[in-house]
Design goal:
about 140 residues; alpha+beta; 7-stranded mixed sheet; about 30% helix
């Protein structure tokens, strides 16, 4: 059902699903207001996708909510142990597994500019510590 082109994961129809990172994390981008599963207050992913990700050694799932600027992160095992299996009554053939928000860690997104600013301040702090050690 799913094809990977390098680290990019796609449906057979070519629709992009997400990216597999080197740290065994599957990362996908969603619009929270549109894609959050309201009935169970959680994020849902295709059951077959989750099984294939688990089979290739993925340990973490990250959903980047572009509209609210939050990152949701959970262990893939939570989907199988705490998730709710859902089949759309309108005729979709595949099951979704919904994982309620209480099983996710939620972090604010940080822009590349903010990351660089933090890195610069940490480098400055490290240089100051070296100066203090030399003075002693």
């Amino acid at each position: 059902m799913f094809l990977g082109s390098g680290k990019l994961i796609k449906f057979k129809n070519g629709k992009k699903i997400g990216v597999i990172r080197a740290d065994k994390t599957f990362m996908t981008f969603r619009n929270e207001k549109k894609h959050l599963f309201r009935i169970y207050n959680g994020w849902a992913l295709n059951q077959k996708l989750l099984e294939e990700l688990k089979d290739v050694g993925i340990e973490w799932i990250e959903i980047h909510a572009n509209d609210t600027k939050f990152v949701y992160r959970t262990n893939i095992e939570n989907f199988f142990s705490c998730g709710i299996y859902y089949k759309n009554p309108k005729g979709e053939k595949d099951y979704q597994i919904v994982l309620p928000l209480k099983f996710w860690s939620k972090f604010p997104m940080i822009s590349k500019r903010k990351i660089k600013k933090i890195e610069r301040s940490l480098m400055w702090y490290g240089k100051q510590r070296k100066r203090v050690k030399k003075a002693k």
